[in-house]
Amino acid sequence: MELLIQGRACPACGTSTAGAREGGASIEARVSGSLRGSTRERSALAYGAGFAGVLYLFRYSLAPLALSLAGPHLGAAVGLIFVWGLLAPAALALSFAAGASLDRSPGKSGVLPALFGFVVGWHGMAVWLTELGELLNYLIPR
């Protein structure tokens, strides 16, 4: 790898590139060409965790829509918003599963979406448990 970075080895075959610069293509062009040609497999669990985190963050934007469509059934709208909050535990669970999957096969991409799902999942779990406590206090008067 050190020889490849310093430009003294060919990325395809590992031979010396002393005469390669006279042939036209530089080592940087060959490395970038070989990187563009290879695609990495995506981890579905990691991207699922990221999408669940994004949907959880958008639930506050969709809340007025749920309240306006519910009309006289306010309880149904509040229940729907509470169910949307379950996307946070889903993002957290998917991020843990994605972490295990990415650990077994490091060639897959999706570390950042899994990390995003992990962070949003932990934050969302705290918010969701707080909302659950408030809802239970409202439903069960003392």
Tell me briefly what this model is.
It is built from eight helices and no strands. With 142 residues, the protein is mainly alpha-helical.
Show the helix and strand layout:
Elements: H1 2-6, H2 20-23, H3 27-37, H4 44-57, H5 59-70, H6 74-84, H7 87-104, H8 111-139
Helix pairs in contact: 4-7, 4-8, 5-6, 7-8
Give your account of this protein's structure:
It is a single chain. With 142 residues, the chain is mostly helical. It is 73% helix and 0% strand. The chain is built from eight helices and no strands. Helix 4 (44-57) crosses helix 8 and helix 5 (59-70) runs antiparallel to helix 6. It is elongated and about 80 Å long. The model has no long low-confidence stretch (mean pLDDT 79).
Would you count the extended β strands for me? Answer: 0
DSSP summary: helix tally:
8
Spatial gap, N to C terminus: 69 Å
Q: Kindly name the structural category.
A: mainly alpha
Q: How helical, in percent, are the residues?
A: over 70%
Overall geometry comes to: elongated
Q: Largest sheet at a glance?
A: none
Give the rounded overall mean pLDDT. 79
Q: Which residues sit in consecutive blocks of at least 5 with pLDDT less than 50?
A: none
